[in-house]
Amino acid sequence: MMISGCDWSIGKSSETKSPSGKSEVQRLNQPPVPPVITRRGHEVTIKMTAQVTQVEISKGVPYEAWTFDGTVPGPVIRVQQGDTLHFALHNIDPQMPHSMDLHAVHAAPNHKFIDVMPGQEGTFTYTADSPGVFMYHCGTKPVLMHLGNGMYGMIIVEPKDGYPTDPQIDREYTIVQSEWYKENDYQAFQNEEPRYVVFNGNNFTLTDHPLTAAVGDRIRLYVLNAGPNEVSSFHVVGTLMDTVYLDGNPANVLHGMQTVLLPASGGAVVEFQLTEAGDYTMVSHQFNQASKGAAGLIRVTASGQ
Ligand SMILES: [Cu+2]
């Protein structure tokens, strides 16, 4: 593992000469690498990659994303309160350093969230002391560049004794809100309105392929707003969120919520019941965001298929 204190260019793609002699931009599309997560008692080993992979952010709109494991958002990591995490980040992006900042842990950032250089693997150990729904992200400078290009995901730390409402829950899903801007454009990340605001990485999957539930099911969503810039107002049309645990901590309980405010990097566990068959839309109730893609469906049927 190497520590980088170096300055580096914002530009991502390198220029090469084609056979015709014309300059062209070299594009990367590294195939996704699923995370390796293994448990021995309360020792959990997590191996992830930093890599560059093309993702589809809207139908027919590719984006050369900087990713964890080749997806945006990165894979959901789920551990238990009190676990010791042995985390390894393999940086297979040939062009720049990346890192891992886990909001779920107490750690000195200059020791445990440090840059891993191209081709290197960094290993770090932390304890997941606090329960919750947390963001993880690349913390390499400029952080906005790495966030705007896709380097974030959700880590769930299950409470030691569970949530009081665990026995009532029939189905659970994860939703990560985030923004897409002009590709790899730092100025756009800094100054412009997002082109898309999306759930789980794009603006079509959760409407084309609704989440499913049966009539009467109690649903739990683990929700995270990864930003990088916008606040989210998470709402489910046609129900009330009977129980909300802000940031996923059972101590932060609210009841009867119509909308949950999620700051950039804020999370929540939200629970509700769907009492009639039909399609229920999840949105950010900041409707400019919903109109840019921050919407998805839960389809409720008698069978729940
Ligand atoms: Cu990065």
Provide a descriptive summary of the structure in words.
This protein has helices spanning 109-112, 143-148, 186-191, 205-208, 287-291; strands at residues 15-17, 23-25, 36-40, 43-58, 61-68, 77-80, 84-91, 101-102, 121-127, 132-137, 152-158, 171-180, 196-199, 211-214, 218-227, 232-236, 241-246, 253-257, 259-262, 267-273, 278-284, 295-301. With 305 residues, it is mainly β. The protein has two domains: 36-158, Immunoglobulin-like (Sandwich), CATH 2.60.40; 166-301, Immunoglobulin-like. It has a six-stranded mixed β-sheet. It is globular, with a radius of gyration of 20 Å. The model is unreliable at 1-24 (pLDDT under 50). Bound molecules: copper (II) ion (CU). The site of copper (II) ion has 7 residues, from loops. Homotrimer.
In short:
The protein has about 300 residues and is mainly β. The chain contains five helices and 22 strands.
Mean pLDDT, nearest integer? 92
Radius of gyration: 20 Å
Number of strands: 22
Number of helices: 5
CATH topology of the largest domain, which one? Answer: Immunoglobulin-like
Look at the helices and sheets and give the structural class. Answer: mainly beta
Subunit structure: Homotrimer.
Binding site for Cu cation 1: 98, 103, 137, 146, 151, 285
Binding site for Cu cation 2: 138
Region (Disordered): 1-37
